[in-house]
Structures are given as structure tokens and as C-alpha cells.
Amino acid sequence: MRIDSIKKFAADNFPEWQRIRQYIHQHPELSFEEHNTAAFVSQQLAAWGIKHTTGIAGTGIVGVLEGRNPGKRCIAIRAELDALPILEANDVPYKSKFPGVMHACGHDVHTTCLLGVLRLLSVYKNEWEGQVKFIFQPGEEKHPGGGSLMIAEGVLENPKVDALFALHVYPHLPAGVVGFRSGQYMASTDEIHISIQGKGGHAALPHQTIDPIAISAQVITALQQVISRRSNPVSPSVLSFGMIAGGTVNNVIPDSVQLAGTLRTMNEAWRAEAHQLIKQITNNICEAFGATASIDIPKGYPSLYNDPTLTNAAENWAKSFLGPEQVKTLDLRMTADDFAFYSHQVPGCYYRIGTNTAGTTHTASVHNPHFDIDESALITAISLMSHLVLEAMK
Fold it and tell me: What b/e readout covers 88-117, taking b as 16+ CB neighbours within 10 angstroms?
């Protein structure tokens, strides 16, 4: 399929992409509650004659679009349906209609782009070979991650996926610019929940207590040193505690303290070792002071690894499609995405699309109540992903 045909179709149908994105943006739904969003996507696919299956892992949608010679290769594309519990601060006509729920991470954009790619490829299905499996997943923003549930439901099989693409909005680059990073790109993410049980009493008589607040300070300090002194400096790690809860007044030592934090790593072996060290050190400190600890580390998303062969090829295809100056190399990120579940199963390429306007507007970061995009980015996103899929099919 000709590059100029792809670009023209994406540009000519911009009002349609804009309509779809703004509707989804106005009607956000939280993780694993995306019933209306899934219904809207299903209705749009049905209107275009694209067969699909709904109700996968709750609200997920999966389908296969066939070109000529469908047995040649199967390339998958994935987008997320869920929004965040954020009150939107933008004053725009398409502002969220549901106070306290907002598409602040761009999943409305991702879903629109996937729909756009499917529309383009379905119109020109006689001009390409192979199969395109499409995955609209629930719950990327919430443990255990909709990606893991979709995989468990077999979305990477029947037909078996040969390679997988996903994109993500990136307000740090202007619309029309994209970014790639081969190999390790994003961190794993695990929640840490610690409850320290001591013995409460009068703050003026600490010798009669087992002070869980003082113990929690020791635990946090010691665990920070685990990261700074035991991890490999060439493989970044982050341990942060965002919640400490214990006590209600200044002169009473409480019975217990609760801590909640997050662990981010780039190395799966170190990740497993860190889990054991966190438990061991916390228990040892608590035991030394006569307290006990309850520790829960529910395993979250793995680190995101971009297949080097696929990603390097995709970066070169993007340079040919957009021009070398429009393609950037991304830095490592300690954020996470459940695309990592897929990338540990099949060769994957997760890349970024610029969404700001000339570096001056639409620059608010994701997960921010002011996040919005320059909608011209939809044209770049839809046309480039279509091109990448078709090139990977060859």
C-alpha cells in the first residue's frame, strides 16, 4: 500500500477521528468499568463491518482483520479503554461529563488511533497481506492490569501473534514527532503494603510502649539503603513510600502504623531479590524492637522490554515515513505500563507520539487535570501505526 495513500486517508478523515476522540473523552470510565466505552467501540466497528468479539476479560474487545493471504503473518495492535479518577480542569467543549473521572492518560487517544488504523486497513484490505489482530483492553491503570487478563483469555493465540505494537501519548514532544527506544524502556511496578504492630501508650512514657512510628522510620530508612546499596547502578531502581498512617494525636503512641509504597525496577532478577530483602529487613527491624510486621507485595506489571529487532526496524520505517528529524530516541522511564505483559510473551514495540503544540501548549503531563492534546497528532498516530503494521507484515 502506498505511503501517500495512507497519509491522505488519515488526513481526509480527521473530522471522524476528532469526533470519536472527543466522544470518548467526554464519557470516561474507570478501570474495569468501561461498559459504555466498549459498547461505543463495538458499535463503531460494526458500522464499518469489522467483526469482533466483546466481553473479553470483562469489557475487552478482540478481533482479526484479514487482508489477502491471511496466513502469512499476524501483527497485533493494542489500546486501552480506561480513564483515571481525576477531576478535569480543562475548559473545552469536550470536557468530561463525569466529574472526578478523566482521560488524563490519553487512552481516549489510543482507542481512537486503533479504530482509525482498523478503518484504514479495512478500506484497503485488498492491498495488503496477512492478519491484523486488534486488542482493546480494560484496566491498564489498575492492578492486576487488563493486559494480563487478556493474555490469560488467549488473545495472543488463534491466530498466534507474531509481533505487537502499541503507542502512547507524549506531551513532551510536539505533534508530528514520535519517539522509540529499543530494549529496556520502562520499569516494573509493585505495590508495597506494610503494617507494623507495636504497643501503644502515653507519649511521655515511651519505655512502656513499642513505638511503631519510630520503628517505621527505621524501616523506611533501611529499605531506602537496600535500593541505593544493593541494586546495580546501571539498572535503575526506585523505592518510594507515599503513605504513612498511624496515630491521631500528638501525645499518644499508637498500636500500629501502616505504610504503602511502590517499587520500580528495570531488572526482573533484582526485582525478585528486592521483594525478599524488603520482607527480611522489615521483619528483622521489627523483631529487634519487639514489634511484628505484616508485609504484602502484590506483584504488579513487569518491566517493559521493546524487542530490539522489531523496534529498530520500526524506528527506521518511521524515519522513512515521517522524515528522520521527526523521530527521536526516548529516555528510560521509571513509569510502568501493562503492555509489558505482552512484551514478555511476543516481540513488542511500544512507542510514543508527540501531542503538544510547538512546545507551547498542550504541555501538561499525563495524570494531570490539565492534560490535553493537539488533535493533529491523531493524523500522525493513525497513519504511522498503519504503516508500521503493513511493514511488519512483509
Answer: beeeeebebeeeebbbbbbbbbbbbbbbbb
